[in-house]
Specification:
With about 90 residues, this protein is mainly alpha-helical. The chain has a domain of about 60 residues. The protein has a two-stranded antiparallel ribbon with strand order 1-2. A hairpin with a 2-residue loop joins β1 and β2. The protein is elongated. It starts with a strand and ends in a 10-residue tail after the last helix.
Length: about 90
């Protein structure tokens, strides 16, 4: 199985694959001077971007159901509303 990083499941044991990227030369130079691992940094930030994109996609796909639920709660309240003492 994979592991959860920033709320996204991925397989850290998956094979590495090379990718041809273009990056701002100044950013690259500064990263190298600070010994920043570009591959690791990209993986971490890409996982976060994927998490955010999947969250947005889920919200868009489920917006009607969420709206209907909220409308029902506004009209009828929740199950325990009559039992609360606060």
């Amino acid at each position: 199985m994979g592991k959860v990083v920033n709320n996204i499941l991925y397989n850290p044991a998956a094979a590495k694959k090379s990718a041809n990227l273009s990056i701002n030369a100044d950013l690259l130079q500064q990263a190298k001077q600070l010994n920043i691992n570009l591959s690791q940094t990209l993986e971490l930030h890409l996982a976060e971007i994927l998490r955010q994109a999947r969250r947005s996609q889920w919200l868009a796909e489920n917006q009607n159901a969420l709206d209907e639920y909220n409308c029902r709660i506004e009209s009828h309240g929740t199950f325990g509303d009559g039992l609360r003492r606060f």
